[in-house]
Structure prediction request, 569 residues.
Amino acid sequence: MNKTYCLVDCNNFFASCERVFNPKLKNKPVVVLTNNDGCIVARSNEVKKLGIPMGAPYFKYKNELINHGVAVFSSNYELYGDMSNRVMKTLFDFTPNIEIYSIDEAFLDFTGLYLSDFDDYGRKIRNTVTKNTGIPISVGIAKTKTLAKIATEIAKKDKILDGVLDISNVYPNVIDNYLKKIEVVDVWGIGRRNSMKLQIRDINTAYDLKNMNLKDARKLLTVTGQRTVMELNGISCIPIGEVPDPKKNIASTRSFGRPVTTFNELSESVASYCARACEKLRDQNSKAYTIMVFILTNRFSKYEPFYANSAVSTLYKASSYTPDITKAAISCLEKIYLDGKNYKKAGVILSNIVPEENFQMSVFERYDPKNNKEESNIMKAVDHLNHVYGNNTVVSLTEGIEKRWKMRRELLSQRFTTNWNELLTVQI
Amino acid sequence: MTDPNNNRSLVILNDYVCAGFPSPADDYAETGIDLNELLVSHPASTFFIRVKGESMVGARIQDGDVIMVDRSLEPIDGNVILALLNGEFIVKRYKKKGSNIQLIPEYETPHSTQCGGAITVAREDNFEVWGVVSYIIHKSK
Prediction:
């Protein structure tokens, strides 16, 4: 069946959130730092032009940022999570078939929508989201998710397009011209390693990748990569809930066979999604900081009004330990669960994913003999050494030296939308 | 159970039977007053902002009050709005006649004839409506 996907992507999301409440930052360079004010996690367009790279350590670029008058903020997860919720809620009004992909991206399934002009609809979505929430977004519309992602990227960069690009119903050569402008590493699902393998075979752009032999693609990039090639050719084959870029996001979602009404049932399903998502995290040796939970009722129900909501929670320390993630997810669910509703779908999205090797001392942080054999063996060894050679022979670096359990966020803006004592104050 | 007087079976109803009239309050039984549900028509576009200053006392907005602002509403002549004028936040009565926009403070009560300090938005000004003020939350002291 012919599908049409629309990807909505917030522009410079974290920086944009700060700008809604501080309009003086509008055309000024803004950066947002990761947990513990360590690295740059978000840059406004002005900062990108200065050549300061994503992920750069803050201390290294601190002087340069001061010299260029760049406004620096710690990650205000409470604010960003709430603003994300508002964007998603606004999108729910446009189509019932929405798939939240990350804190600032969502796929809308336009398939079956009786529309004469997707571009027009896309523009309406863009204008409504920006007006209602203050967050600027880019919209890409195409026959597959992979192509929609590319359309959004181009809509974001090319000012003439004014934030919306619809390539769902254009001649193939029009798409090809766009694909020639995209480097293969920027194609959804193709990471750095795959792009290097591809470049050896002289496959450098998305256009080259599109024309790759499917058998070769499967051999070199596994079935996921093969699917990406097919998607570039307009064949939609990435199933709902499957995300080809697990280094960035891991989603675990499902529609229920029959409506779920109680908190207990919902939390059981949310817990199972967390378990699945954590398995995927551990499989790829990663940990996640941020957990987003969303729930929806049936959009088409005659008996009750549509209800959709999401909540975000961020851990002080990244984790792939199922109980940690589940606990955070259940606290999100508590914030959004309303009694007396028939829920049709729920989901968990993990983001802010970091490689495990960043956490040298993580092996010492958890000790639970019931749940994780490997961790408890390590703790057994530590205990044994301490027992034989005396206390504190082997000690976790993080305890005792300073109380590092609290995430450092010294440049935090106010929690304008979630804290009554931190509202935006205006002089009138 | 058998009626000893005439050998018929009697059915025992093992349940309660309501006697008397239904309560007139039953039709009006509700789950309580939830301000969020009643006052916030568009949660995604509704924001709470605290104000400092006296320029809108006549509009019943006092220093320290919290205003509820809805970004999704299109301002009409006479609304109180939160706006951005040349990068600064401003809360004033919005008056629109044709393409002419004025932002008017209300220091006194509406019955007063004084309305000094009206701002006319010029073409070279950077003007943007942030949202329409729908409710004012004032704590009784």
Observations:
- The helical segments of chain B are 35-39.
- Chain B has a mean pLDDT of 83.
